Amino acid sequence: VALPEPITALSEALCRLPGIGPRSAERLALHIVQSPADEVRRLAQTLVQAREKVRLCSICGGLTESEPCSICSDARRDASLLCIVERPLDIFALEKSGSFKGLYHVLGGRISPLNGVEPEDLRLAELEARLGRGITEIVVALSTDVEGDATSFYLAKRLAGKGAKVFRLAHGLPAGSGLEFADEVTLSRALEGRREIPA
Amino acid sequence: VALPEPITALSEALCRLPGIGPRSAERLALHIVQSPADEVRRLAQTLVQAREKVRLCSICGGLTESEPCSICSDARRDASLLCIVERPLDIFALEKSGSFKGLYHVLGGRISPLNGVEPEDLRLAELEARLGRGITEIVVALSTDVEGDATSFYLAKRLAGKGAKVFRLAHGLPAGSGLEFADEVTLSRALEGRREIPA
Predict the structure, then answer these.
(1) Is the CB of A65 less than 8 angstroms away from the CB of B32?
(2) Where are the alpha helices (DSSP H) in chain B?
(3) B161 vs B126: CA distance, rounded Å
(4) What is the sign, positive or negative, of the torsion defined by CA atoms of B180, B185, B188, B190?
(5) Which residues of B touch A108 (CB under 8 A)?
(6) Max CA-CA distance within chain B?
(7) Which of B28, B33, B50 sits opposite A9 (nearest CB)?
(8) Residue A199 confidence (pLDDT) above 80
(9) Cα separation of B42 and A10, whole Å?
(10) Which residue of B has its CA nearest to A95?
(11) Chain A residues closer than 8 Å to B7 by CB
């Protein structure tokens, strides 16, 4: 006697979600079949509605309910500044910092030949279409690993001579952390990027 | 600028599931809104169908698609043996062991006055209704913690004199584990229950 088939089917479906292993998928499936039916229907509805209501902004590629998104359509944002990020989520991280008042562009990943991600798989055509419309400064804000750095260099080369200066975020020690938690690459970058303390 | 509302709504709904914290709920919600729409609809359907197709067997209280369940309706099972478990899931664990050929009864929990679970909150009326129909042996297979033990003793007392002998599972060392991993209660129970090795 095995688990009823609808439970294993649900468990397998949940297992395909990121970060959910076979054991937690089974536990979730068992919880769900024993939950009130209207609660389960509501959860299913929330799933479908979230997917239907949220789209990618056709300009920046960020997650949005409206088209274009509230950032792209906000006249108070500085349209001369463009920040390039990997994923839609990165926009919310930067917005939380409250330190960037320009516009965003989601690249959709980084160049990674080993994983089959070539430049043409990224939103580069969309990016180039946005240049020339008064953008004078581009901040490349990708992950600070090998692939992120390689992609940043590629972007700097590709975007050169199109009217905008290309920057990257500073590398160094994270805030609120001690030297003992920093790896050697972070430390050497923090040293390279040292700043004079005004007297 | 915050996350679009349908994403936070989904994230909050997922957060109510067992074992899913706020961070993994947000990650799941972001994954789902970026998945193909038909995949999300299929997942929602699987959720609702699992809940609609799976019910609790009116006899044993186990999870089933048919009514009564395949165990209760199986004439080859030994109807003189009844095993009492806490949760529907426990039936599948015991079935995997392949060592029990009788019928089951799901109690639906254990007595826990601190958590407001009294005997009348358990499936005891349903249990007593099954006695007298040729059941001669009852195996109480509850958790081996304080509440499980207390519930086992309560059951033994309540079921006494109703025509069936009441047993509990053996306590002792788990299979494939060394003494160094056993706590002192397990070890003292393993000593109490020692068996002579036939010469």
Answers:
(1) no
(2) 5-15, 22-33, 37-53, 88-97, 124-130, 146-159, 184-192
(3) 17
(4) negative
(5) none
(6) 78
(7) B50
(8) no
(9) 10
(10) B1
(11) 50, 54, 63
CA distance B77 to chain A (A): 12
- Coil, strand, or helix at residue A85? strand
pTM: 0.73
Q: Which residues contact A101 (CB under 8 A, 6 or more apart)?
A: A77, A78, A81
Mean pLDDT in residue range B145-158: 91
Residue A1 is predicted with a pLDDT of 66
Residue with tokens 């920057």: A167
In 3D space, the residue among A12, A45, A16, A42 whose CA is nearest the CA of residue A29 turns out to be A12
How far is it, in rounded angstroms, from Cα A105 to Cα B72? 61
Share of chain A above pLDDT 90, in %: 66
Spatial neighbors of B54 by CB under 8 A, at least 6 apart, are A4, A6, A7, A33, B63, B64, B65
Quick check: B126 and B100 in contact, CB under 8 A? no
Q: Which of B32, B47, B100, B103 is the best substitution to test chain A (most A C-beta atoms within 10 A)?
A: B47
- Token pair, residue B119, equals 């005997």
Q: What angle do CA B83, A30, B14 make, to 5 degrees?
A: 155
Q: Mean pLDDT across the stretch B122-135?
A: 91
Q: Which two tokens stand for residue A35?
A: 């939950």
